[in-house]
Input
Amino acid sequence: MCGIVGYVGKKEPVNVILEGLRRLEYRGYDSAGIAVGGNGDGLQLRRAEGKLRNLEEVIRNKPLEGTYGIGHTRWATHGRPTEENAHPHRDCTGRIVVVHNGIVENYVTLKKQLIADGHKFVTETDTEIIAHLIEKYFIGEHVALEDAVRKAVRQLTGVFAVSVISSDEPNKIVAARNGPPAVIGLGEDEFFVASDVPAILHHTRNMFFLHDGDLAVITPNGVKVTDFDGNVLERKPQRVTWDPIQAEKGGFKHFMLKEIYEQPRAVRDTTLGRISLDTGKIFLDEMQITADDFRRFEQVYITACGTSWHAGLAAKFMLERLAKIRVEVDYASEYRYRDPLVGPNDLTILITQSGETADTIAAQRESKAKGSKTLAVCNVVGSMIAREAAGTVYTHAGPEIGVASTKAFTAQLTALFLITLHMAEVRGKISYDDARKYMEELAQLPGKLEHVLKLDAETEELAKKYHRASDFLFLGRGIHYPIALEGALKLKEISYIHAEGYPAGEMKHGPNALIDENLPVVIIATQDTRDANSVLKYEKTISNLQEVKARSGTVIAVATEGDPHIADHADHVVFLPEVPELLSPILEIVPLQLLAYHIAVRRGCDVDQPRNLAKSVTVE
Output
């Protein structure tokens, strides 16, 4: 979950690397460091504990310059977040430095072997092992740096993305991947390596992701890719269409708030070109899963982590209602350990913003090993999960920088609804006319989201009243329950308030014991008045609301415009436009995101970089 940036070219590497690290700081902010070479004075290192601004201050006080270099922003796994444990790490001679994202699982064994060989270690990290292993095969052996790196990485057990430089071979970066992401950027007479696209998007849009087992040699003359055995590989670059401005705050105080406001565009772009209001047909791109495949599937397994798992829970209601197929939803971190009964007649859907989440990759490979076709819902073109999937529905949310996911979630819900409609059509469970009605509603969603965003001031007023609460409870029934979970997650992620999401019907089975005058309870009580099932759930939810009020609880209700009764039962009501129930989560989550945001700001929390969390979880 750390961030890596490397550069070889005509620009001053320190500026390029620091700029890239700023855009990767969401991946880790316990410590940071940089190493550059090419000025005739060996490799120069600067490191600092804490956020990147501390490293920038170190460099202001003690400048460094060169022609090539690597940098790192850290989210600690092995070793405390101290300056000593910050990357880059040196070998014994100081002629090799390494930055690393991942975990070396056999580092204790390797460390003992290296100590026996005379190596001396100065940190608590597993990364330092890599520097010493490379030294073992490079110094005095008269081999190329990339050959020494190949020998070293073949001894590593675990997951890693590494970048290596040496003063002995100036203007060369060697990068290797086995698990965490690594993207190579191709500029004009300059080349880059990074952990994620935003780090280098201001310099080039031409890039490609390394595959697992790839090793890249980056010099001013270009990039050469081989496998760990030295066999030359071809990796075709792709042009990333994200506007670099999308990765900036755009006048908003925080990335999270900007990304909340980008949700109408994200939903619109994810829908664009995939629906035909004339024919009622869905068009899914990047799809090697045929209509016959969709017809023969007997069950769908959905695996994801965190916010994406909540999107998967909502998709279960969509798929079972419209496509009439059984659905199981698993945490990706648990999936492969329970030996799932997935097989060739099942579809596995992987949901991930980054396409590089380690647990979700492992779940994908578990399903593929058992014969299941896999379908990815992903925001990053060319990412690992997208490459390994039989089909991919890309969410066109653009880069999401805030650690707490917002626009990626609503884009995922949109993509999952498109998949649902497609499956329902090809399986003959919905007519094209009925599908067209849903598409018309979907096409109107961006405008309705714009309307919901006007509730910003209203949610800020609620934050003033309740930002000192120590606990929150979120309730919902049916497809609204995953949104209760997501609302609770958003609040706890960024405000550090303990929050629980619960099915409203489970109140009598425990949560009622928590209710008193100090507990705000957020109840999702929307309804689609055209749907009898939705109206029934609404009536049951009102009964739960009354249970809360009978116990002196404070009720914040999310309800549908035109509801004449809800204000009689709730302390506060946030009204949303009416939509079909299966699309309601896309609207419902927005006021909960805004509420969490404003509460966190009032509590003085770091909204974009909440403590102990990182954006992309690329290690287990």
The CA atoms of residues 252 and 258 lie 6 Å apart.
